[in-house]
Amino acid sequence: MDGLKPVLIKAPDSRPELSRRPGKKEEQDTVDQKTRQALKQDKFVSTTTHSLEWASAHRQSVMTATWIVLAAVVAAIAGGLVYNMRSDAAAAAFGAAMQVYQSPLTQPGEPVPPGAKAYATSAERAKAANALFLAIADKYGMTPSGGNAHYFAGLTYSDAGETQQAEDALKRVAGGWNKNLAALAKFSLAQLYRNSGRDPQAIDLYNQLSAKPTTTVPYGIAQLQLAELYQSEGKAKEAKDIYASLKDKDAKGPAGTIAAEKLNPEAAGPQMRIPQ
């Protein structure tokens, strides 16, 4: 024991919390974080309280607005369903009217198939179809088929020889919002004018259609009809000018092909020659 030296053993710190005591900066960060959380909670509580107070004070207005929105949604859905149902009914009725309009004409003594309607003349057939188209236009006028029925009512009036009624019906369609249907009506109206000796009015319509071509009446078709009208009036130069222009503008298209044939009498044959 005399040779051993005593070893001092340091006792562990009995206050460990002092060894981990945060610095001033850490203390400040903790305080700031608690402050922000408290502010957020206060803001949420305040906002929620104000919202509830406003809803309570304006309960009747809120309920009224909610019902108005719900009513609008229900009305839109119901309106769409009704419109679709009317459109389907209009389409079915229009198909039936077109079947009548396209019925074959029968010859005297020719047997008629069972269940089929027979018409001896195109005027008789047109009158039968006209009544159906007018009924569709009157009942389903706001549907696509109703709009088409307005147009075909004009055509069938014309086929039946009722020129004034046809003109009035086609004018109404020509002034409508559907540009493709309006173009068809103008095109048919121009033909009606030509048949009734009103060429200047037909020329005006062909020029309108050429200035604003549509899918249903392209530029080339309107110009070909105009050239044909000039040709029938003996205005060969005006017709040739149109054909020459179409030949260049629509070289590979149908209008350009027809125009090229009109300009080449030898290749086209006698029926397509332009009078000199």
Properties at a glance:
276 residues, mainly alpha, disordered N terminus
Q: Would you kindly provide a written description of the structure presented here, covering whatever features stand out?
A:
With 276 residues, this protein is mostly helical. Among the domains are: 65-103 and 119-174, no CATH class; 197-276. It is built from twelve helices and no strands. It has helices spanning 16-19, 24-57, 59-101, 122-139, 144-159, 163-174, 179-195, 199-211, 219-232, 236-249, 254-263, 265-268. The longest helix has 43 residues, at 59-101. The model is unreliable at 1-12 and 14-19 (pLDDT under 50).
Summarize the structure in short.
Helix content is 72%, strand content 0%.
Taking the sheet with the most strands, its summary is:
none
**Rounded to an integer, what's the Rg over CA atoms?**
42 Å
Total number of β-strand segments? 0
How much helicity do the residues have?
over 70%
Shape field:
globular
How would you spell out the order of helices and strands?
HHHHHHHHHHHH
Oligomer: single chain
What would you call the structural class?
mainly alpha
Unreliable stretches (pLDDT < 50, length at least 5) are: 1-12, 14-19
**Percentage of residues in DSSP E strands:** under 5%
How widely separated are the two ends? Answer: 149 Å
Mean pLDDT: 78
Number of helices: 12
